[in-house]
Amino acid sequence: MTKLVTIKGSREGLRLQLDDAAGWPDVLAALRGQLEQGAQFFNGARIVVDIGDRALADEQLAELMALMRQHHLEPSALGSTSRESRNTARAAGVVARPSVRGAGVADERGEAAFVQRTIRSGQVVRHHGHITVVGDVNAGAEVIAGGSVVVWGRLRGTVHAGALGDRAAVICAIELRPTQLRIADLIARAPDGAASGVPEVARIDGDQIAVEPWESYRR
Questions:
Q1: Which of 93, 166, 203, 209 is a plausible cystine mate for 170, CB 3.0–4.6 Å?
Q2: In a domain, 107, yes or no
Q3: Each residue of 52-87: pLDDT tens digit?
Q4: Are 132 and 184 within one domain?
């Protein structure tokens, strides 16, 4: 079955590609489910909505924009190969651009992000796939990933792995002392006391987030 909503990454930020052949009510329902499941992931993100060849009527665009606003999102642009859809968007005050499907945009979860710097307080790193940070994640900083997160340094801030619902995602760090950890729909805080002194992995075990040494996890 064709996936009705696909998440891509681009230099502009996130790109939501909506199936351009399925029924519009089905596409809207799938988009609603994706936005609800990944509420924190999408919060504050720059998003281009790409509708491909679909000719979007005024009322359909209004439904799309209303759904985005319900989830506190404002698309930065609408992408479409349909001139009718682009004209509809511009008439409603929405930036319109040609669709870039098949033009080298990264596949969903298929491209990992590599961040080679310390992420400081107030900064947010967001990616639809896995994220590797070579540096520290300071208190007050935030990393949000659709996949797993690996920190080659001290993790003192907030990390949300599996933010699109992937409960198999993990969080790894050389020093794991976060303000908060989230994997999919579960939340945990760092235990009181000193750091363990060894690299650790956080993963979902049953209905809670468990933390164990990297060496134990590898076995």
A1: 203
A2: no
A3: 999 999 999 999 999 998 888 888 899 999 999 999
A4: yes
